[in-house]
Amino acid sequence: MYTIEMAYARMRELQDLANRSRAHQPSATKPRAAKRTAKKR
C-alpha cells in the first residue's frame, strides 16, 4: 500500500536532491519541469 505520507516523504527526498543539484548547476530548472508532469501513482 502506498500512503499519502509515503508520497510526501518521497517528494521531500526529491526536493532535497533537486535543491542540492541546483546549487551545483543553476541551469537545471528546465529539465525538472518536464519530469514534474510524469508522476507514478
**Low-pLDDT residue spans:** none
DSSP E strands, number: 0
Q: Strand portion, in percent?
A: under 5%
Helix content: over 70%
Q: Give the overall pLDDT as a whole number.
A: 77
Silhouette = elongated
User: What is the SS-derived class?
Assistant: mainly alpha
Order of helices and strands: HH
Distance between the termini: 11 Å
Q: How can the largest sheet be summarized?
A: none
| Radius of gyration from CA coordinates | 12 Å
Number of helices: 2
Region (Disordered): 18-41
Biased composition (Basic residues): 32-41
Protein name: Transposase
Q: What labels describe this entry?
A:
41 residues; mainly alpha; 2 helices; elongated; Transposase
Descriptive notes:
The protein is mainly α. It has helices at residues 4-24, 29-37. It is elongated.
Quick structural overview:
This is Transposase. This protein has helices at about 5-25, 30-35. The protein is mainly alpha-helical and about 40 residues long.
Topology:
Elements: H1 4-24, H2 29-37
